[in-house]
Every structure is written in structure tokens, then in C-alpha cells.
């Protein structure tokens, strides 16, 4: 017994926050080498074949291809992924389903969140617009519309995306589907009826070029979306403190505070934020948290039995008389057993890490001909020099030219720190998790 206890004491340790492990392709992407990141991802896909990570790696590869200017390849990849990608709704899935998929001992095939699934269509739509493939963009706009409406969900559980409705409107308008385009723009307006800046941006997006003109659409994917990281929490369940791991959502630093677009050395405008990916994801995470905690506790039940069994075995060892010291050692051994078993069953933290924190959009009318377009990126640090990214556009009469600017590749790598260990027993999320757990019994 003493040898077993000593082993537990030597191997168990306190959990401290640590940097989230960075994949080599992530470092390459954020250090300005998206083409290298794409090569790394493609090599992994070729080597791993049909591994459980295949679908999430394809989403990452699509983002790297977009940043590398290979929009046609990215859109084709996203269309294929959309046809095969499974979705797991953390806010509605039964607890046993969540426990099975998020806290499995062996990784299961990746399942996207509903928000990621919606952005698959949005990114494919945008890629087709960049490539001038209006009909293909319209198909993705209609797919996105189906997901936005989510006929099977209450209104307050649907995703509200001004950006996706607006891009759908542009795509459908460009494809000649004027009625559908007007409906999409109407839906976008309903979501921002009290926001003058967004309404003005929507006016510009909806207005087709005047006679003898073309138009330029600039989409800026700014910053870095939150990512899921391994977190440890404690909850009192059935008169015992249980320690569980779960996938916390962690915000990442970065993004440019002010972005300007110049055409031929003249200011053309300031792109307006139409989708805050980070804020929506974090709000959704607040809704997910109680159910994720409850699912983590469901997965922890076998571990609880094991730690209780160790404590009972030591407490009732026939070779020794009952004493207080033995009770303390039994409780300690049971506790440490639970600690070790908790460490052995991490939560699934896979996610689409190369998404931006926000999308900003600007549409401006232009005369036909060759134009130089500069996107100026200014961060919030005082005195920091702005960065400039340049494109050459050869615009024809009546044509829509689209620029998709990914700013994160200009920002450099930044470490992400996992959250520290917390006791959530008396928080609202913890109490809701316990209620869900007891209701499921």
C-alpha cells in the first residue's frame, strides 16, 4: 500500500496554466508564410489518410490556401469538406453524445461546431467571388441561407450574421438572381437596423455599378479567432470534489485597430466590421459551458468509481486496525487516483484555428481600367508603423473585382495561454451543469 501511495504522490502534480501547443503550420501561417503552411498541411493529409483529424486539417488547409492567394483551390476543398463534414451542436446534443465525442479515450472523427459549419459556406462563397465564379458563389450563398435560417431551431438559437447575408446578397446579385439578392440584403438590414455604419456599408454593397463603371469589393479577415484549449475545473458532485478536463474557449491577441483602403493613392474608404467571429464564438461558448461541464462529469463517473475504490481498499485493509491516519491516507490516495485518471482523459480541443477574429467589408465604384489597391493596417500601439498590402486590379465595365485580405499573416506568432484551474461549483455555469447532470439520471 505504501509503495502504491508513494507512486501516486510522485506522479501526481498540480495543474498550472501552460501555453497551448502550436502546430508548425500555425507558426508558418502567422509568420507570413501561408504557402509553407499549406504545404505542411497537405503533407499531413497525404501521410495520415483517413485519420480522425482529416476534416479539421482540410479546414485549416483551406484557410492557408486563401491567405496564399489560391482561392480556387480553397473553394473546391471547402465544397468537398462541406459535403462530408459532420456537425456537433454543443448547446443541444444529449449529454451522453457530448461525453462520447468530446471526452473519448481515443480521438473520433472531427465534428465541426455549427458556427464553423456556417463559415465553411461563407469562405467558399468568398473564394468563388474572388475567382469571378458567380454561379458557384450563388450556390454557396443558398447553402449558407439554409444554415442561417435553421428552420428546426428557435429564433434565439440561430446564428445572426450580417456578413453572410450581405455576401450572399452580393453573390446572388452578381449571378443575376435579383429577387433572392434583395431578400438576403433585407435580412442583413434587419440585423443592424440601429447601426448607421453597417447600414451605410450595406447600401454600398447592394448598389450595382453605375453605367460605365465597375466595382471593387474588399473583404478584410482581421485578427485571430478564439481557440479551444485544455482546461481543468473542479466541481463538488455527490459529496466529493471531482476534477475534470474540458475544452475551454480562449481569446487570442491580435488584429488591427484601423484599416483603410486606398485606390491609386487616394483614400477609398474604411472597411466596416460585419461579423465579429470572436465575440459570437465567445457568446456561444457561454451557452455551451454548462452542457460541456455536465458532459465532462458524465465522462468522469468511471474515474470517480476508481478513486473511491482505491480509498475504500486502503481504509479497510485487513492487515491494519482502523485509525485516523489510515483514513487520511485513504482519502489522499483516492484523491490522487482521481487526479491521475483525470489527466489521462483529456478533452477534444480540435477546432478551426486559422479563422479570423472578424470580417470587415468595403465596396467602392470604380472606372474600368488598371488600378493599384493598397490596404493599410494600423495596430493599436502608439507609434507603431502601419503595414501596407498591395494588389493590382484590372477592372472591366460592369465587373465586380474582389480582394480577400488576410491580416493575421502580417501579425506574427503569439503564444496562447490555457486557463488556470478553477473551482466552478458555485458559479452559475457550475450549478446549471449539476442540474443537467441530475436531470439526466
Question: Topology of this structure?
Answer:
Elements: H1 2-11, H2 24-30, H3 34-48, H4 54-67, H5 71-84, E1 86-87, H6 95-102, E2 111-112, H7 114-130, H8 134-149, H9 162-174, H10 178-191, H11 196-206, E3 214-222, E4 227-237, E5 240-250, E6 258-263, E7 266-269, E8 272-276, H12 277-315, H13 324-343, E9 358-366, E10 369-378, E11 387-395, E12 400-406, E13 422-423, H14 428-440
Parallel strand pairs: 1-2, 3-12, 4-13
Antiparallel strand pairs: 3-9, 4-5, 6-7, 6-10, 8-9, 10-11
Helix pairs in contact: 1-13, 2-3, 3-4, 4-5, 5-7, 6-12, 7-8, 7-9, 8-9, 9-10, 10-11, 12-13, 12-14
Provide a quick synopsis of the model.
The chain has 441 residues and is an alpha/beta fold.
Describe the 3D structure.
This protein has helices spanning 2-11, 24-30, 34-48, 54-67, 71-84, 95-102, 114-130, 134-149, 162-174, 178-191, 196-206, 277-315, 324-343, 428-440; strands spanning 86-87, 111-112, 214-222, 227-237, 240-250, 258-263, 266-269, 272-276, 358-366, 369-378, 387-395, 400-406, 422-423. It is an alpha/beta fold and 441 residues long. The protein has a four-stranded mixed beta sheet. α7 (114-130) runs antiparallel to α8.
